[in-house]
Specification:
Blueprint lengths: L10 H12 L29 E4 L7 H12 L7 E4 L1 H4 L9 E5 L18 E5 L9 H12 L3
Parallel strand pairs: 1-2, 1-3, 3-4
């Protein structure tokens, strides 16, 4: 499913932090690890059952999550088949078996970034942020037309 912590992707790290906390060992996170000399960010490999990747600044919650689940259902997908990444995390994406990538509220240049995994075989959706789709008939229609164009 989709959640802001991406616990599916970082399960070993969370478990490790939990053990350290139980032992009374403080942990710190570097704010800008990319500025460390020789640092290479860890890659993100999506599970094989992940069919749709939502790329958005925030993970859908509340009304946005409800809208997201409705859109997934219209595509005959289950919430368990979708994950969320922020545009910043997208650069860490390595292996995937995605059918869809949905850029919601993102700059269009993100999808064409040469450093990202190739999207040639992946169906792409581009929309405003989910919060901007609520109550906006034109935004809903535009999204639906994009989805239908792949049928």
């Amino acid at each position: 499913m989709f959640d802001d912590s991406n616990s599916e992707l970082h399960q070993p790290e969370l478990r490790q932090q939990s053990y350290l906390k139980e032992m009374g060992i403080s942990t710190f996170e570097v704010a800008h690890p990319d500025k460390l000399e020789g640092y290479q960010s860890p890659g993100i490999s999506l599970p094989t059952d992940c069919v749709l990747l939502l790329v958005a600044d925030t993970c859908p919650q509340g009304e946005d999550a409800t809208l997201f689940i409705k859109v997934l259902a219209s595509m005959k997908l289950q919430p368990e088949q979708a994950l969320h990444l922020t545009p910043g995390q997208l650069a860490q994406l390595q292996q995937h078996s995605l059918n869809w990538v949905w850029f919601a509220g993102c700059d269009d240049s993100i999808a064409s970034n040469d450093d990202l995994p190739q999207w040639d075989s992946v169906k792409q959706l581009h929309s405003p942020a989910l919060s901007a789709i609520h109550g906006n008939t034109q935004n809903r229609r535009d999204l639906w037309q994009q989805i239908c164009s792949y049928d």
